[in-house]
Input
Amino acid sequence: MATLTASARHPAPRATLMPSAVIGTLLFVFTEAMLFAGLISAHAIVKASAQEWPPTGQPRLPFGETMINTAALLASGVLLVMAHVSYRKRADLATVPLAMSLLLGSFFVLFQGREWVALLQQGLTVTSSTYGGFFYVIVGTHALHAVAAILAMAWAWRRLQAGRLSAAQLGAVEVFWYFVVLVWPLIYLRVYL
Amino acid sequence: MNTRRWTPLLVVLLIALTPTLAHACSVCFEANDKNRAAFFATTIFLSLLPLGMIAAMYWWLRRRVIELRDLAAREDILPMGER
Output
C-alpha cells in the first residue's frame, strides 16, 4: 500500500446527480408553486361566483401596458438561458447576458411599481374590493419573489465577476428566476384578463 | 366491552347523522354552472400540479442517471492515457 498512485491518493471528483444548492432551490420552488396555485385557484373561484367582474367602480387592470412588462420578463428568462450556455463554454462569457437579464428583471419590478402607484391613485386598494385584494396579494407575492430572485442574481453576477461563481450556485439562481418568469404568464392571463 | 373505546366512534356516528349543520359543500349554496366549473377545474389543477412536479423531477433525475452511467461506461472503455 506504500506505492499508491497519484490518482488513488487524489481520486477525480465524481459527477454529482444534482448539486445540493439546486435540490434545495427546487424544493423551495415546488412549495412556492403550490402557494401560487392556491392563490390562483381561490381567485378563479371568487371570480366565477361574482355577479360582476371587475366590480363596478373599480379600475380595469392595464392589460396592454403589462404586456410590455411581460415581454421584458420573458426576455430576461431567455437571457439567463444564454448566460447558462455561455457559462458552460467559458465562465466569464456569462457576465453580459447575466447582467442584461438582471437589468430586465429590475425593469419588470420598477414598471410594476409604477403600475401600482397609478392603480392606487385610481382607487384600487387591498380593501376596496375582492378584485383589488386578489390583485395586490397575487401580484405582490410574485413581486416579492421577483425582488428576492433579482437580489440572488445580483449576488451571482458579483461572484461571477470575481471569478468565484460555481456552476451549482448559478444553477440554483437560475431555478429561482425561471420559476419567477414562468409563473408570471399564468398570473397575467388569470388576473389581468 | 370497553366503553372508552366506543365513545369516539359513537360521537362520529352522531355527527354523521346531522349533515345539515355542516356547510362543507362550497358549491351547494352558490350553485351556478360557472362556479361549479371553476371548482372542478381548480380541483384538477391542484391535484395534478404536485404529481406533475414529482413526475418532472423523476424524469429529470432518471435522464441524469443514464447520462452519468454512460459517462462512467465511456471512461471505463477509454485507455488510461486518454482519460
User: Anything to note?
Assistant: The radius of gyration of chain A is 21 Å. The mean pLDDT of chain A is 91. Chain A has six helices and no strands.
